[in-house]
Prior knowledge:
Elements: E1 63-80, E2 86-106, E3 110-119, E4 128-138, E5 144-154, E6 191-202, E7 212-221, E8 242-253, E9 256-264, E10 269-277, E11 280-287, E12 306-315, E13 360-365, E14 371-376, E15 382-384, E16 389-390, H1 409-412, E17 417-419, E18 422-431, E19 438-444, E20 447-452, E21 461-467, E22 470-475
Antiparallel strand pairs: 1-2, 1-12, 2-3, 3-4, 4-5, 5-6, 6-7, 7-8, 8-9, 9-10, 10-11, 11-12, 13-14, 14-15, 15-16, 17-18, 18-22, 19-20, 21-22
Amino acid sequence: MRLNAAPAVALALVAGSTTGPALAPLFGVAAASAQTPTMPSTLRYGSGLIDIPVSSVLPHLYVTGTLSAYRVQLGRSVLIDDTGAEAGFGPGRDDVFADGSVAVGLFDRGEAGFTIQSLGGADEGGNLWGMFGRLRLWEPIDQGIGLAVGGRYLTRPDFGDGVERSPGRLGFPDERLRTSYASVRGLDTDLSLYAVATAYLRGYDGGRLPENDMTFTLGYGGGMFGQGGELDVYSGGNGGGFFGGASLHVTTSDRSRLTVMAEHNGFDVNVGAHYDWSGVRVGVQYLAANHPYPQDGHVSEYLKPKWGIAASLAICPDRPGLLCRPRSMRRTEPDTIYMPAPPPDTIVVETRPGPTGEGVAGALCLSTGQNVDVRYTSAGDTLVGPNEVPIRELRPVIDFAGAYADDAFWYQDDRVIVFEGADFRKSDDTFPVDCGQILRVGIYEGVPVFAVLNASRPLQVIFIPVRPGVWQRYER
């Protein structure tokens, strides 16, 4: 039987000492990590959708490595002259282009990495090397809009003829993409700066449908996001530097997530799906879906739909196994309402001696946020209730109200816990707490989470009830 009305009593035997570390939290300095959905890896430039950035960044020192590839099949390729006009057709091609990238989160505020494109690809022009980065200006703790600025830089391909060329959005060296032409504006795509906003919304929470989150992204950029609008072989679908996209993140288990995406990267409409199982990720994309195949077969690599695949690995240095479990948007847990137990069918009246006043007065703080008055005797007994009954005499019928972490695997294994989008680690030993000095702020794996009354968000210290009267401090 569990008694939920105060004062409640418990079977769990609490050590008789009333001494312990004082409740004096030390607040460290740490950047807030917003609880927004784990984003997929883009094909070439760190976290985002398929080819566009979002406002969120990787958590501090989290690393993602990504390999992607797509196939181009053309019966013939378009040639252009020095003026930028089409000048006929060259041989066709059937090539698979592969790209790689590595990204790392910095202080929960930024993300940076490098990319190498056209891995093992064209013999001429060489590989394209580059760097990318993003600075998070604002990210909501819960639902809302995030803002970020960033940039991408790529080296220019070199064909050894003294003509300056620019990198294209598909990641392979293309001798047709020049920095200048005689009649049309050339491309200046080696540096692409941008600003982006992302709206994060919680979707359906439970029931017959799985938990899900949604994002909507809109941004504006230069360089590769808008350059090339005057070159016919390249410019189809040009959005003038604007890009945008949407994604649906569906929780398939406590370790896995399916993300479905659609985007416009400034030129192409791309759609795809991405599956994340504890940091091991695979994805498939249909690229340039807005460029239908013309009747005369006249297409270029940029204006032709194509299939692509991607695989990535997300590494978290502070997690068991070093792999990152995908996260959902923070949900606010409802408070637990304790209803009084129904009256028993049989009432047993027992006469007990009145309180003796023996022992030292103390209090146990329960996970319900209630203090229970007790007395500790010199013999090591804990006396509870108005008649000061030893706890051992109440076993195993009566227990304290509330949920505790003592038997939880994550507590016993000293694991880092994630609360409100931040990681918290065990600190110091267990100790007693006065319920009048703390306030419930949420729940983790069914166990209530508390903080001091005057704590401000983002929280730096939280308290977890281990068993009645015994608490564990966790620090960010």
